[in-house]
Amino acid sequence: MLYEPDARARVSVAVDHEWDPRLRFRLVTGFHILFPVPSTPLLFRPEQRLRHALEFQRVYAAKMRKVRGSLAAFAVPNQLAQHRLGLAVGRPVGNAVRRTRVKRLIREAFRLCQHTLPRRDDGAYDLVIAPRAHKPMPLTEYQGLLVALAGDLHREWERRTRREGEE
Question: 19: helix, coil or strand?
Fold first, then answer.
């Protein structure tokens, strides 16, 4: 039995669906795998969000920023078991409808690839994603950019940690 993501899944042939509430996936027969099947549920809980201004200021104060395509990402290590995501979507991205769509796509990309993002030995990262003005892209492009940015930020934090250890 193969899995297909529930959100915005398009199938050109008729398939039988069964709902699996644990994984929030539709079980599909006769279709290819779009994403690897996770060992844990793919959820985006409130504790995985940056919500308060002080949390955002802490991330910005670390001065760790990487840009890829239309996304800029800021990161700082945390002592938690999971990554946390904050979004800073400004007016240049577009009107309220477009900004909301971009936020939803980025949240969904984070939810789907959160278990593949790099981690530190002592925890994960607090990430703030700040999209630049662009047209909304497909979900898979946001996933690719998010994974690439997290990898860049992880390498830079490891480099910074090694430099501080040598001094």
Answer: strand
CA 86 to the chain's CA centroid: 10
- With both helix axes pointing from N to C terminus, report the angle between 139-166 and 96-113 in degrees, rounded to the nearest 10: 60
Token digits of residue 127: 């990430």
138 token code pair? 């497909």
One-letter amino acid at 37 equals: V
DSSP 8-state assignment for residue 35: S
Would you say 62 and 75 are in contact if contact means Cβ atoms under 8 Å apart? yes
Q: Are 82 and 48 in contact (CB under 8 A)?
A: yes
Q: From the CB of residue 127, how many other CB atoms can be counted at a distance below 10 Å? A: 24
The pLDDT tens digits of the residues spanning 98-126 come to 999 999 999 999 999 888 888 888 889 99
Q: pTM here?
A: 0.73
